[in-house]
Amino acid sequence: MHTQRLVDTVKALVAGDRGLLAMDESTPTCDRRFAKLGIPQTPDMRRAYRDMIVTTPRLGDCISGAILYDETIRQETKAGVPFAQALEKANIIPGVKVDAGAKPLAGHPDEQVTEGLDGLRDRLAEYAGMGARFAKWRAVITIGAEIPSRGCIEANAHALARYAALCQEAGIVPIVEPEVLMDGEHTLERCRAVTEETLHTVFDELHTQGVLLEGMLLKPNMVLPGLAAADQSNADDIASATIGCFLRTVPAAVPGIAFLSGGQSSELASIRLNAMNLAFKGRMPWALAFSFARAIQQPALEIWRGQAVNVVAAQKALFHRADCNRAARRGEYDAAADAPAAAPH
Prior knowledge:
Structural class: alpha/beta
CATH architecture: Alpha-Beta Barrel
Shape: globular
Number of strands: 10
Number of domains: 1
Number of helices: 13
Distance between the termini: 49 Å
Radius of gyration: 19 Å
Strand order of the largest sheet: 8-7-6-3-2-1-10-9
């Protein structure tokens, strides 16, 4: 195993109060977001959008790593530089999404399991040759009346662990992402219980598969009430539920936890991350960071709208949101001052 390389990469990913930018939306997902804003759904337009992101001035001040999609890691910027190389030049570590998406889990109605293990060893070798230094695999856990089942949790945990072991074999840091979805009417406590069971199972499988905890990152959901729940809870209660859950489930050997945003608004994601770092600073064995997609990108996408004339304003909005989350890592995010600062100049 490439132990030192893995450890060094993880340390760099959580250093300097920075976090990760997830720009690995699949082609269908990206196209849906483009369609809502009247942006043509073409490979060239997706490349132009990701070029706008990667060439944002000083982005590396706030972002330590960027997760690319298969299409993007094979593309070049407008300047003819492969995206992975362009990120490295910006002091951002390139990574790549390697799962093949969540599919219906046989025998378990309304539940899914993530596929993509077949051929993964060869794909990881190819991605490493393109410059990827870390990877991501997302599992999806849905809360409902009779779900999640043990079968669903165990199937996804086992796949995550096998993926992580293959990554480390290739010298690539695995980001392990078991996402308990926000959809539904469930309470904060129900989400905490499901997240706790999921994380216990994931780390049991990681141990079974011999994954080096010091050479991985965890990308979990925050513990949140369902989007349709009557009580949405305040940031302090969410912080206590989330960190309390993690202290019971995430080994201290794991260097960092980088939250997914999971459909939260940009401001709420920052407020909640800030509350955790403010209340629990010095009491957590791992760095508490972010790995956001829409919570960083959406304001910039709405400004850009596929128009070259909007690139500079969109980049300012993108940097602003990344900088807000760097502040939240320090427990210094000021939500009251955020809205006017976010407006393009």
